[in-house]
Amino acid sequence: MANGDQLKALFRSYAEGDERHFYSVAMQMAAHEAKQGHGKLAEELRDLLDAAKLRRNAGAADGAIPLARPKGDLASLLSVSYPSSRLSDMVLAEPVLAGLQRVLKEQRHLGKLRSHGLHPRRKLLLVGPSGTGKTMTAAALAGELGIPLFVVRLDALITKFMGESAAKLRQVFDAVASTRGVYFFDEFDAIGSQRGIVNDVGEIRRILNSFLLMIEQDESSSVIVAATNHVDILDEALFRRFDDLVEYHVPSANEIRALLRMRLGSYLKSAKSISSLATEAVGLSHAEITRAVGDAVKEAVMHDQVRVPADDVKALLQQRHAVRRPPPVAKPSVRVR
After folding, report:
1. What structural domains does the chain harbor?
2. Which of 290, 147, 281 is nearest to 224 (CA)?
3. How far apart are the C-alpha atoms of 5 and 254, rounded to whole Å?
4. Given 11, 104, 148, 311, which residue has the most CB atoms within 10 angstroms?
5. Confidence at 194, pLDDT banded by 50, 70, 90
């Protein structure tokens, strides 16, 4: 249950009319319950708070309230948000969905597993083409667990000065240990490329070595998620540091149909149009299909239409195909064994 300090902070913020702090403390309490393995209670608390935020912030563009804000030097290394996304908002291949649900199940029973000397899954490597759902997965995991999403800013992390990048990475892992959240390393190949590869940069090699050491030593309650479009250039030593490797692909025909039904809903006049549009969308990523459908819906709304013509969606899908660039030719790499 909540500790005394949390209860005092909750009552104090309510008495002072500080809604932001009230919601922040309340969500920390929900996250604490999830950490203790009280998954059902934590979910009920999050649902109550989500409903309250929707009522109190109906006019706000973004009702998300972050649990914590990085301060000092850390503020330049991490951006924080509190996503409301859920896995049910995504269309995923069955093996991917099953793997992520297992991660969530183990996280919701974190306290129980650790009391038996067991380690829940919490270090994930997501690989696959751009636009297939890797970034949204990190947000959905945070939303499901009721904890903040911290995105690691690699542009600020990597510097040309010897040793500085490793020092900044240490700050990030100190935050991982002190503040529970989902910590997301996007475009992970920027620091995870093979040691000894042609044109290898010394500072990148040093930060990779530091990452390997820090992630292996990390025993926090946070979830670490790394994502890359270029799994083939990752250093082999990285793979055994992660609990699971999750592979994403462009959606199958069945997944495309499910995605179109989810995004278009009652906007289409005929359900038969879904099959025709799905055929047109084959080869596109989740993101490309979602954007095409979103553009069609916006166009209909702006013209006061209650339906979206299937031909409009088809034309936008064809445009997406037309602007796609051919994938880059993979360059041979040199591995040191």
Report:
1. 4-56 (no CATH), 72-247 (3.40.50.300), 253-323 (1.10.8)
2. 147
3. 50
4. 148
5. low
Query: By percentage, how much of the chain surpasses pLDDT 70?
Result: 81
257 vs 196, 228, 271, 276, 308, CA distance in Å?
44, 26, 10, 9, 16
Write out the two tokens for 234: 């990752």
Task: Annotate 31-97 with DSSP letters as a single string.
Answer: HHHHHTT-HHHHHHHHHHHHHHHHHHTTT-S-----S----GGGGGTEEEE-----GGGS---HHHH
CA-CA distance, 286 to 230, in Å (whole number)? Answer: 18
> Can you tell me the distance from the alpha carbon of 277 to that of 293, in angstroms, rounded to the nearest whole number?
10
Residues 3-17: pLDDT tens digits? Answer: 777 777 777 766 655
Tokens of 96: 């991917």
Strands (E) across the chain are located at 78-81, 123-127, 149-152, 182-185, 223-228, 244-247
Instruction: Give the pTM.
Output: 0.72
Among 159, 242, 237, CA closest to 195? 237
* Listed residue (253, 229, 245) closest to 93, CA to CA: 253
Alpha-carbon torsion angle 333, 129, 170, 124, nearest 10: -110
